[in-house]
């Protein structure tokens, strides 16, 4: 029950973080959010974060932070989001494994 409450709280914080980042870089907000989210998720997995911590951070915060539903509307970023997203997730995973 505590993990679900924490996930909801971090989900709210992730959504707020997405809003603030999108305001900070208006023409590329969705792209920046999705790429940084992919990197951080890779970092968490690479560092061996699992269980409730991955649920709370990965699904809660990063699930709300990233905007793949909005990304689908902005098709102009399709190839860059997918390609760079995978590359940054891999980089984060490698760096996380080194920690």
Q: Please mark out the parts with pLDDT under 50 across 5 or more consecutive residues, or reply none.
A: none
Would you list the SSEs in sequence order as H and E?
HHHHH
Count of runs of 4 or more consecutive helical residues: 5
Number of strands: 0
Radius of gyration (CA) equals 13 Å
Report the β-strand fraction as a percent range: under 5%
Mean pLDDT equals 88
Biggest sheet statistics:
none
Helicity range? over 70%
N- to C-terminal distance:
30 Å
How many structural domains are formed by the residues?
1
What's this entry about, in short?
By secondary structure, this protein is mainly alpha-helical. It has 5 helices and no strands.
Topology:
Elements lengths: L1 H23 L4 H18 L4 H15 L2 H6 L4 H21 L1
Helix pairs in contact: 1-2, 1-3, 2-3, 2-5
Name its key features:
5 helices
Question: How does this structure look, described?
Answer:
The protein has one domain. 84% of the residues lie in helices and 0% in strands. It has five helices and no strands. α1 runs parallel beside α3 (51-65) and α2 packs antiparallel against α3. The longest helix has 23 residues, at 2-24.
């Amino acid at each position: 029950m505590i993990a679900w409450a924490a996930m909801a709280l971090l989900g709210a914080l992730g959504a707020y973080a997405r809003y603030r980042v999108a305001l900070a870089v208006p023409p590329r907000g969705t792209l920046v959010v999705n790429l940084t989210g992919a990197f951080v998720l890779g970092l968490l997995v690479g560092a061996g974060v699992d269980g409730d911590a991955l649920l709370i951070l990965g699904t809660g915060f990063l699930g709300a932070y990233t905007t793949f539903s909005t990304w689908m509307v902005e098709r102009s970023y399709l190839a860059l989001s997918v390609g760079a997203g995978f590359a940054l997730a891999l980089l984060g995973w490698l760096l996380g494994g080194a920690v």
